[in-house]
Design brief:
It is a single chain. With 175 residues, the chain is α/β, with parallel strands linked by helices. Helix 4 (92-98) crosses helix 5. A five-stranded mixed sheet has the order 1-2-5-6-7. It has a two-stranded antiparallel sheet with strand order 3-4. The protein starts with a helix and ends in a 15-residue tail after the last strand. The model is unreliable at 126-130 (pLDDT under 50). It is 34% helix and 18% strand. The longest helix is centred in the C-terminal third of the chain and has 15 residues, at 140-154. The chain contains six helices and seven strands, in the order αββαββαβααβαβ.
Length: 175
């Protein structure tokens, strides 16, 4: 219904999902963060089918710990027709780029090529509106500058994503 309505108005809908890339498959500690954010948007019919496969994989028992996850092997298998963004500041690529470790960002590029884009965002400055895992010394301007600089050096597209979970700060408690 969403897709049909968008097309009726001459708009091209983007169908995508925020995934979690699993960092480990075993040996977890209680409450240990074992995943990183990753955005996947279907570009083609094949991409939509692959997006469903990735989403379905997150419910498999071997992929689930606290949240459903995909692994590098899943991305390698199901990346065709999908554009992946580096996601917010809790993505593996952005975390590494900002810290001068390009291992994960380069792995995305090796697998996805031109279908990997860098995502920059604005974040509320009030700590109560940031993710619970965010560092108190987080500076969004410096963070975005590092991402854009790295992307420009490698000729990678940059997009803006508004990492919004609610429309107004007053809605944070409900979220």
């Amino acid at each position: 219904e969403f897709f049909k309505t968008m097309n009726e108005y001459g708009l091209r809908p983007l169908l995508g999902v925020e995934l979690y890339l699993g960092l480990k498959s075993s040996g977890f500690e209680p409450r240990e963060r074992d995943q990183a954010h990753l955005i996947a948007v279907a570009r083609t019919d094949r991409g939509l089918r692959n997006l469903w496969c990735l989403t379905n994989a997150t419910s498999d028992a071997k992929h689930f710990r606290n949240v459903g996850r995909v692994f590098w092997e899943d991305i390698e298998k199901y990346h065709e027709g999908i554009t992946f963004t580096s996601a917010c500041c809790l993505g593996l690529g952005p975390q590494g780029i900002v810290n001068g470790d390009y291992q994960h960002a380069n792995r995305y590029l090796d697998i996805l090529g031109d279908n990997f884009v860098i995502e920059v965002s604005s974040y509320p400055s009030e700590s109560k509106f940031r993710d619970q895992d965010s560092d108190d010394g987080f500076d969004p301007r410096l963070y975005n500058e590092a991402l854009v600089s790295w992307a420009q050096e490698r000729g990678i597209r940059v997009i803006y994503g508004d990492d919004a979970h609610y429309a107004k700060p007053s809605q944070a408690e409900f979220h």
